[in-house]
Amino acid sequence: MISKFDAIRPYDDADLPRVLTKLFNNKEFIRTLVAFKFSAWPKFTWPMLGFVTRRYIISQIGGIRSLSGFQRLVQPYVQRMIDTTTDALTVSGLNKLDLSQPYLFVSNHRDIALDPALVNWVLHINQQDTVRIAVGDNLLKKEWVADLIRLNKCFIVKRSAADRREKLAAAKLLSEYIFHTLQADQQHIWIAQREGRAKDGNDITNPAIISMLTINKPKDVEFADYVRQLRIVPVSISYEFDPCDISKARELHQIDLLGAYDKPDNEDMRSIVNGITGKKGRIHLHFGQVANEAFENAKQVAEYLDVEILAGYQTFSTGKAALQLLNKLQGKPSEPLPNSPTETRLATDYLHSRLAQLNESEQQKLLAMYANAFVKQVKLAN
Length: 382
Fold this sequence. Notes:
Layout: H1 16-24, H2 27-37, H3 46-61, H4 67-85, E1 86-92, E2 104-107, H5 114-125, E3 132-136, H6 143-151, E4 154-157, H7 164-183, E5 189-192, H8 207-214, H9 223-230, E6 232-239, H10 245-258, H11 267-277, E7 281-287, H12 298-312, H13 316-329, H14 341-355, H15 360-381
Parallel strand pairs: 1-7, 2-5, 2-6, 3-4, 3-5
Antiparallel strand pairs: 6-7
Helix pairs in contact: 1-6, 2-3, 8-12, 10-15, 13-14, 13-15
């Protein structure tokens, strides 16, 4: 049966045999896996490794008959990533939510793949279904990437619409699909508070996201009532160390210097790999309170989310150390940091190791990236 949502929805169990067969036979997909897994091996061995890799994948996923089975196959790799690249993963606020209801989790956005993956993991270890994930079509330029992502319960946000009419139609369809997922399918959803990562460390909700979510609202339903039906939960995701901080700092510097950034074709995939494999230190996820206030417009909802996400954000010692180093670099007076010598030393040593790879302007971008949330939290507290 053809559904109006087929062009954007995640794949379902019925799609699995067709999509897996496509992946098995996609030479670029196999080559990409070999290049990632065996990058240190001589290239003349890659054809043989490609054959072995393809046979291994078929043996691992050839017998899978459901998407839940596919996700169970991925779980050990997520556990390994957490065990090997983080020092701790902590959670707060989740126990205050009634998880028998589906929620629309709106989070800050620091990492392309990890942000929703960590929300998924926390729900999984709390015996909850994983979320359906909103992903921009800019990440789906390659067919095998789109297939892999849609197998993992991702739905498509069409950002490449050509004209205003097409953009409006795409927004309406997406809004309707999100409401359908929550109300009819009873599934959790994850969506970022803005398009693209907050590379400068300023987590700000774009009101246009809220406008898209509510464009499906019937005329006879009050705005605040529709927002309540969406059951929006702000989520704060905090990383002690950002594996992509150097590339983000260089991008921000280039934008300042040239007015734009020319992104290489493979940069998003490289950022995904770096985020997954890089050192992250401690990670904290905070689930805020459901957006139940008498909101009158999208701007008010966005402002509520900004306050809640900032309040739930954990800066660790990295934010404080970055502010002190930034003040020193700019010749400004700096107050002494609170007494936590071990954490402060580790944070400072980490930042120095990253700064050594950047010029002075890029160094300021990196330090501000870590310091901005800490500075905003201090202002919020006062």
